[in-house]
Design brief:
Layout lengths: L2 E5 L4 H12 L5 E4 L4 H11 L6 E4 L2 E4 L3 H7 L4
Parallel strand pairs: 1-2
Antiparallel strand pairs: 1-3, 3-4
């Protein structure tokens, strides 16, 4: 399952999310929406949000660092 994080370098919640996924040995791809306008447009299209992080897990979209929802989608306990 592909995990993609839309983030910015200065976002504290984004950095916490990336550290959390690393601790859980979950591979992920990062899209820096502060430097990539096409990715920013995609993030807004799938989430309706301008805020980061937005996490794409397979076909699911999680807005913010919602640990409970992320754990559920990745089958983490």
């Amino acid at each position: 399952m592909t995990v993609k994080i839309y983030s910015t370098p200065t976002c504290v919640y984004c950095n916490n999310l990336k550290e959390y996924l690393k601790e859980k040995n979950i591979d992920f791809v990062v899209s820096d929406v502060s430097e990539n306008e096409k990715e920013l447009e995609k993030m807004v299209a799938i989430s309706g949000q301008m805020g980061v992080p937005v996490v794409e897990i397979g076909e699911n979209v999680v807005i913010g660092f919602d640990k409970q929802k992320i754990d559920e989608l990745l089958n983490l306990k």
